[in-house]
Amino acid sequence: MRSVRIGVDTGGTFTDVVAVDEQTGEILTTKTPSTPANPADGFVAGIEKLGELDIGSIVHGTTVATNQLLEDRIADLGFITTEGFEFILEIARQSVPDGYGNSYFWVKPPRIVPVHLVKTVGGRLDHLGEEVWPFSEEQAVEVARWFKARGITAIGVCFLHSYANPDHERRMREVLWREHPEAVISLSSDVLREYREYERSVTTLVDAAVKPAMRGYIAGLSNRLGKPFSVMKSNGGILSAREVVNQPITTVLSGPAAGALGAALIASTAGHRSVITLDGGGTSTDVAMVIDGEPSITTEGSVGRYPCKIPMIDIVTVGAGGGSIAWISPEGTLKVGPRSAGADPGPLCYGKGGTEVTVTDAHVFLGRIPPHLLGGEIPLDADAARAGIQALAGKLGLTPERTATGILEISAFNQSNAIRQLTVKRGLDVRDFPLVTFGGSGPLLACRLIDILGLPSVVIPRDPGNVSAFGLLTVDVKNDYVRTYVTRDLELGKAVEIFHDLEHQAGEALDREGFDDPVYVRSADLRYYGQAYEVRVAAPAGEIDEVWQAEVIDRFHVAHEKLYGYAYRDDPRHGVEWVNLRVSGVGPISRPVIPRLGKPGEGATSVRPVHFDETRDTPIHQRSALGPGATVTGPAVIEEYGSTVPIHPGFTATVDDFGNVEISATPQAADEER
């Protein structure tokens, strides 16, 4: 029996499974419908679908924490903070979300914890961690008993300046353990040992809020599998399930992070070191940037309306997936998304009770996807899609073809806007980067995105619907640690002490994961004195001395100029301020090798009516039959088990040595466009 490593990614519509044979490197893939009521059912069904295998290890990309936050399913959550700071969540920040213009029209949303569930405890530390007045054990006991009497079992603790000294928070936890043993507790000094108390408070509370659901899900899945497994984290690393339940906030962008990493490896293997990645699923589209083979990382991310300052792959998500619903606004205009039909009931063509037209229905109506999914496993009701499109067209006063094309055009512009947020808004020229698109619905709008954005090309990997699951098998074990140290005059001895402490924490965690020879990656957050926010730059390994310090500062000047267009490298009036020191502890794993494509497989070319600029009989190619160097000129459609690639008129698709389909505008069409 073959021994395999398995990656399982639970999406909104499908659960994707990839297995890599540890002896031969052979890659097996499959998909199964997701089970939103209990994601573990789809997880287990997907593994069983692979047949009898000797499973060496399993890595899981989960949406349990993400969905709980996006759906605002947060209740019975308590907050304990420093006496006198009970309104920290109410005050929050002065900024108003984009799109509201005048703040008069913006209504402040409910806080993650209502003020009547916020309690304070006496005691105070200064910004250096020195005790100003002692921790009040008496008040701590009173607060713990208050929460216990009201049945509040998920509690976040964030005391002022606990990033500098966690002692008071740890004493509060000891009191809670003693007085309220049923409580699930998150300390800010464990979750985010970094200054800015509002963001630290919310991040800690998000962690506490998702802990019960994640612990229940992980425990249930462990019992069903009967063996340990690992979970993908937002920072681009993995961690064993037994460890990740202690900080479930680290999983909030689990699936999208895996997709970006898998696409980065595939693109690098094919010779594209810097790309844009686009993961199109049933509910949403996730976009990320890969520079020199590495996805961009941010600590300014958010999930839904909650800021989460943990390190995570910089991903922009928009509600533009295959299940996105087309609807008519009160003004009479056509809109698409962000609401989705999901997996159940799904689009009209699923025949499971859906009542609203979706993006998938538009593709079916236009003939751009076949009348079935997953190689015939899921038949589609083309008549239901046609009836829905015709009814919507009647309300709009348009032809059905124009209505369906309009739905896809709006969806393409929604995706292009997400790409612009990561490129144009950050000083990058979108025309310099190929797009790697994957996911079940990702390749469907590839040609339109080339037109809209002026992309040089779009690369579509083999088995695009399983790239996120494949990405789970390319990921190292990784933990991040941070310590705030604000100074304009860096004391090298203090920096050595902090980095040594952070590396010690990272080493202990990796030792528990079974790594004897970990790798430590340093970085630092710096800013010009007087600025409110900082820039994160990589810091060299080795001895921390004056040469090391000068190198980090030089990297900061370079990064600042790249981001903002200016730097004060030679201006002594603008000093550099150090803010945070960081260490990532990495336990390297063996990545699967992407094989070169051999001779073409089987699969006959057929013909069916497809609508692009007009409806005509169009060649339908089976991707398995396209060998290296094969060329397909539009109009055409390339089909495979988990996805479909429409090739519009004026575009050409070429298969490279690794089986990727690369689409670009044909030279004549590109010249005419210019």
Q: Tell me about the largest β-sheet.
A: 9 strands, mixed
- Uncertain segments are none
Radius of gyration: 26 Å
Number of helices: 17
* Share in β-strands: 25-35%
**Overall mean confidence score, pLDDT:** 90
Approximate shape: globular
Coarse structural class: alpha+beta
The first-to-last residue Cα distance is 57 Å
Number of strands: 37
Work out the helicity level.
25-40%
How does this model look, in words?
Residues 5-177 form the Hydantoinase/oxoprolinase N-terminal domain. This is Hydantoinase/oxoprolinase family protein. InterPro entries: ACX-like_C, ATPase_NBD, Hydant_A_N, Hydantoinase_A, Oxoprolinase-like. It comes from Nonomuraea diastatica. The chain is an alpha+beta fold. Among the domains are: 1-53, no CATH class; 70-215, no CATH class; 477-587, Dna Ligase, domain 1, CATH 3.30.1490; 605-665, no CATH class. Strands 13, 14, 15, 20, 25, 26, 33, 36 and 37 form a nine-stranded mixed sheet that branches. β17 (301-303) and β18 form a beta hairpin. It is globular and about 80 Å long. The mean pLDDT is 90.
SSE inventory with pairings:
Elements: E1 3-10, E2 14-21, E3 27-33, H1 39-49, E4 54-61, H2 64-70, E5 77-82, H3 88-91, E6 118-121, E7 124-125, E8 131-133, H4 137-149, E9 154-158, H5 167-179, E10 184-187, H6 188-191, H7 197-225, E11 230-232, E12 238-240, H8 241-244, H9 254-269, E13 275-280, E14 285-291, E15 294-295, E16 297-298, E17 301-303, E18 306-308, E19 312-313, E20 315-318, E21 324-328, E22 334-340, H10 359-366, E23 372-373, E24 378-379, H11 382-396, H12 400-422, E25 435-438, H13 446-453, E26 458-460, H14 467-471, E27 477-487, H15 492-512, E28 519-528, E29 535-539, H16 546-564, E30 576-587, E31 606-611, E32 615-622, E33 631-633, E34 636-639, E35 644-647, E36 651-655, E37 661-665, H17 667-673
Parallel strand pairs: 1-4, 4-11, 5-6, 5-9, 9-10, 13-25, 25-26, 32-34
Antiparallel strand pairs: 1-2, 2-3, 7-8, 11-12, 13-14, 14-15, 14-20, 16-19, 17-18, 21-22, 23-24, 26-37, 27-30, 28-29, 28-30, 31-32, 33-36, 34-35, 36-37
Helix pairs in contact: 2-7, 4-5, 10-11, 10-12, 11-12, 12-13
